[in-house]
């Protein structure tokens, strides 16, 4: 199965093989032309299709072989929330969800695709039913499907980034997992996911990411962005005698971002009345490789274990000479794509 993660700056592709024992077959990354995607909306489906096709051929150590894919929906243009409704039949629930979600969704309901699934009831009320509702704007979905259809890819599922991130970082059998806050730090956005009692309970997104930290460092120290990116990767948040100003500048901007994450998470946990709160924080995404980031999160989330997620946790590490090899740090960049490709057993 092929997982294709499309964001505003790049395309990341992963192909897995091996069925019930999935192994990494090939991976690739390709940048997108500026403004080809704006706020999750493709501006030119033909160019996007051509870009994806070119990326599929350039994967290493070999081109992608499958034409079947699971593709991500940008988190900024999607919505996930848990609703609590009276117990009723499936047919009645479908109509009830349509009505109830109108009060929560930030989009016009006539312009979205909507899906829902029942959850394990955590409210303690036997007469109530909790459902997880996901929605994505048609303006995002339709051109994406058009671009993929043009190049002959069979899309078996479109999936929210949050769903793929959860599948990549948590055990595939996560029914007993509770209180996990997953924070995926990308180039332009930071996605927040709370997973509790075997299901996602909410998602959120902050429109700041690793590129913003780089730009801030470049502006404050009056250096070129490329040099700022190098210093960010090598020095990070840990002060050294050689570059104390780099660490101090990065630390200030990073603290602001992590404090935003904390605020969003606490507000949503309070709204959803989740008394157990956060038990663990897992970090993922390319920007999670920033040296010292775990320590900063630990400051803002005291008494909560914070660690880097392992995007390879559900893969079998193969020794075949033709198989793709990737380090845990590099795999961070492919967290969503790996999670998408792992859906293979669910769609067969």
Strands, helices and their partners?
Layout: E1 2-6, E2 10-17, E3 23-31, E4 37-38, E5 41-42, H1 45-57, E6 68-73, E7 78-86, H2 90-100, E8 112-118, E9 128-137, H3 138-150, E10 154-160, H4 161-169, E11 180-185, E12 190-196, E13 199-206, H5 210-221, H6 225-234, H7 244-271, E14 280-284, H8 293-300, E15 306-308, H9 328-331, H10 335-341, H11 344-347
Report on this model:
With 348 residues, the chain is an alpha/beta fold. It contains eleven helices and 15 strands. Among the domains are: 78-137, Dna Ligase, domain 1 (2-Layer Sandwich); 175-309, 2-Layer Sandwich (Nucleotidyltransferase, domain 5), CATH 3.30.420.40. 34% of the residues lie in helices and 27% in strands. The strands form four sheets. A five-stranded mixed β-sheet has the order 3-2-1-6-10. The chain is globular, with a radius of gyration of 20 Å.
What's the quick description here?
The chain is α/β, with parallel strands linked by helices.
